[in-house]
Design goal:
With about 150 residues, the chain is an alpha+beta fold. Helix content is about 25%, strand content about 30%. A four-stranded mixed sheet has the order 2-7-6-5, with no helix packed on it.
């Protein structure tokens, strides 16, 4: 071997060097894919599991019930009052729920309450899902009378 061929890079032109590097990259990637095939298959199997159903991440009140003021002893039908609830899933999608898909808890019309929290929880969903909350007022049966002094 003479000094000129070693020093000059073996007589390879810039185009030939680029082609050689590209060929080595292709061989390397092909070998990596074959070598890592069991790992790649395992990753594909776990990432494409179709048995995994998205869970409800949180509930959103799209339309609160109206009216939001009730009398002692009332038993409201929330969906008839316009309550609309949607679910946001762990997959990122969301959809409106039927009244049978969620539970409304916290309603107590046995006593007056100026700001009663009503909590909405998903049925058959993620127990860790964030609940949706809205507030209502329960009015007293008794009227409060105030004496008004006439201004003279």
């Amino acid at each position: 071997m003479n000094k000129r061929s070693v020093k000059g890079g073996g007589g390879l032109t810039k185009t030939k060097k680029t082609a050689l590097i590209a060929a080595l990259c292709v061989i390397f990637l092909t070998q990596c894919e074959v070598w890592n095939k069991p790992l790649i298959e395992e990753l594909e199997k776990t990432s494409s599991d179709e048995d995994v159903q998205p869970q409800i991440e949180r509930l959103i009140i799209e339309s609160p019930p109206w009216p939001n003021t009730f009398n002692i002893g009332d038993d409201p039908k929330w969906e008839e009052l316009g309550l609309r609830v949607s679910a946001v899933y762990t997959s990122g999608e969301w959809r409106q729920l039927n009244a049978s898909d969620y539970d409304v808890t916290g309603f107590d019309s046995t006593a007056a309450a100026p700001r009663q929290p009503i909590k909405i929880l998903p049925k058959n969903g993620n127990e860790n899902a964030k609940a949706a909350i809205f507030y209502i007022t329960i009015l007293s049966d008794e009227l409060d009378y105030y004496s008004i002094e006439p201004y003279i």
